[in-house]
Amino acid sequence: MRDNKIKDLVESSLAIALICVGIMVLQIPSAGGFVHLGDSIIFVSVLILGKRRGALAAGLGGFLADILSGYAHWAIPTFIIKYIMAYIMGTLVEKQQSKNKYSWIFGAAIGSVWQVLGYALASTIMFNFNTALADIPGNIMQSFSGAIIAIIIIFAASKTSLSKKLFKNA
């Protein structure tokens, strides 16, 4: 039992670090934000870690990336938005997994819609409605690119012998 807790802690910590680095390392500017690899790592992490640990890794990874990148004012909203995005995906995967093995794609899409709405709401509260509207295209691009990259990663990984061990929910 102790070994499972240590394994869970190590897997979760690795996911947090990969999400943080994925957000920070490659940042392609877009309208109102930037495209990065972090969201794709979040989607993959939910499939590996499950709903709860994947959501926590998503929130903490995004939070740390904002703190370390100089966007500390976004850290709390990012934690909440990324956590909920991953939790939505994980919930939909759990509910639909027996019916459709590609339910995670639908879950990632619905989670991405939440992310766009969440950042629009946060931007409205922190700044104003016009700023929020201006940021929406960039947030759509960020979410869409994250989902596409995750689809590529997961389909490529599904062709390997590790896929059954790695992706509990895919």
Features:
Arp2/3 complex 21 kDa subunit ARPC3; mainly alpha; 170 residues; 2 strands; globular; 4% strand; 7 helices; two-stranded antiparallel sheet
What features would you describe in this structure?
There is one protein chain. This protein is mainly α and 170 residues long. It has one domain: Orthogonal Bundle (Arp2/3 complex 21 kDa subunit ARPC3), CATH 1.10.1760. The chain has helices at residues 2-25, 38-49, 51-69, 75-96, 103-126, 129-157, 163-166, and strands at residues 28-30, 33-35. The protein has a two-stranded antiparallel sheet. α1 (2-25) packs antiparallel against α2, α2 (38-49) packs across α4 (75-96) and α5 (103-126) runs antiparallel to α6. The two termini are 25 Å apart. The model has no long low-confidence stretch (mean pLDDT 90).
CATH topology: Arp2/3 complex 21 kDa subunit ARPC3
Strand tally: 2
Q: How does the overall form come out from the CA principal axes?
A: globular
Write down the secondary-structure element order: HEEHHHHHH
How many helices in DSSP terms? 7
Number of domains: 1
Q: Low-confidence stretches at least 5 residues in length (pLDDT < 50)?
A: none
Strand content: under 5%
Radius of gyration: 16 Å
Summarize the main sheet: 2 strands, antiparallel
SS-based structural class?
mainly alpha
Helix content: over 70%
Q: Tell me, rounded to a whole number, the average pLDDT.
A: 90
The first-to-last residue Cα distance is 25 Å
For the largest sheet, list the strands in their spatial order: 1-2
